Amino acid sequence: MTPGRLLLARHGQTTGNVAGILRGADSRNDPLTDEGHAQAHALARRVLALNPDAPRVYASSYCRAQQTAAPLAEALGVPVTVLDGLQEIDPGAWRGRPYADLRTHAQELLRPGGSVAFPGGESLEAVADRFTAALAPVLAGSGTPVVVSHGGALIAVLIRLLRAPPVETWRAGTFTHANAALTELTRTADGWSAARLNEH
Questions:
Q1: Which domain range does residue 192 map to?
Q2: pLDDT tens per residue, the chain (200 residues)?
Q3: CB 3.0 to 4.6 Å from 128: which of 21, 70, 156, 198, for a disulfide?
Q4: Cα-based angle 31, 39, 55 (whole degrees, multiple of 5)
Q5: What's the sign of the alpha-carbon dihedral 194, 152, 36, 98?
Q6: Element (DSSP H or E) covering residue 48
Q7: d(CA 17, CA 7)
Q8: Residue 94, CA distances (Å) to 22, 55, 105, 119, 122 in order
Q9: Which key words tag this protein in UniProt (predicted)?
Q10: What's the rounded Cα separation, in Å, for the pair 44 and 97?
């Protein structure tokens, strides 16, 4: 029986988050701050309280996602499985620009046909493609997958899974996640829906 429930979380705080600078893969080895570790433990308590059935914990290949997943996996009594494809969006030419530009210069990321893409980097569609490909074998199994990923990557995959309009959703910040925020999706015959979104 395939999972009818999917838990998605953003990693805890890093110094890069505090600085508010887009770094892409340059940040792959960034560790959590003390606050980030505290957020990871709080996330573990929230997920444990949801009593997921036969939980399985997955994290991106980036250090901060794995550090966030570790107390969660310990609380649930399962290992952390690292999955390629869950990593943060590549900001391309926007590497080094402040997070604030995502709001003030959002029009620079809009492409013909209703897509959102970083010049020289990835589009939301490309991120959703790799993320859902990584999730495919996970969702073919049983139990409740708990996936720790990144802000931009979560926006991309939620747009895909919830069939939301990319440009409008990006502009509105509908799926923007705070550090260690939790989203729960449930699946029915009609597809996925959000039972909780950006809970933190």
A1: 5-199
A2: 466 899 999 999 999 999 999 999 999 999 999 999 999 999 999 999 999 999 999 999 999 999 999 999 999 999 999 999 999 999 999 999 999 999 999 999 999 888 999 999 999 999 999 999 999 999 998 999 999 999 999 999 999 999 999 999 999 999 999 999 999 999 988 999 999 999 98
A3: 156
A4: 95
A5: negative
A6: helix 34-49
A7: 22
A8: 7, 37, 11, 7, 11
A9: Glycolysis, Isomerase
A10: 32
Angle between helices 151-161 and 124-139 (to 10 degrees): 70
Give the list of residues 6+ apart from residue 105 with CB closer than 8 angstroms, or none.
none
Any long-range contacts for 182-186 (C-beta under 8 Å, 24+ apart)?
Answer: 182/7, 182/8, 182/9, 182/43, 182/46, 182/47, 183/7, 183/8, 183/9, 183/154, 183/158, 184/5, 184/6, 184/7, 184/8, 184/50, 185/5, 185/6, 185/7, 185/8, 185/161, 186/4, 186/5, 186/6
Please tell me the pTM assigned to this model: 0.96
> Distance between CA 9 and CA 43 in Å, rounded?
8
The three-point CA angle 48-152-139 to 5° equals 50
- C-alpha 116/C-alpha 107 separation (Å) is 9
Q: What's the domain count of the chain?
A: 1
- Nearest alpha-carbon partner for 69 in 56, 78, 53, 80: 80
Which residue type occupies 99? Y
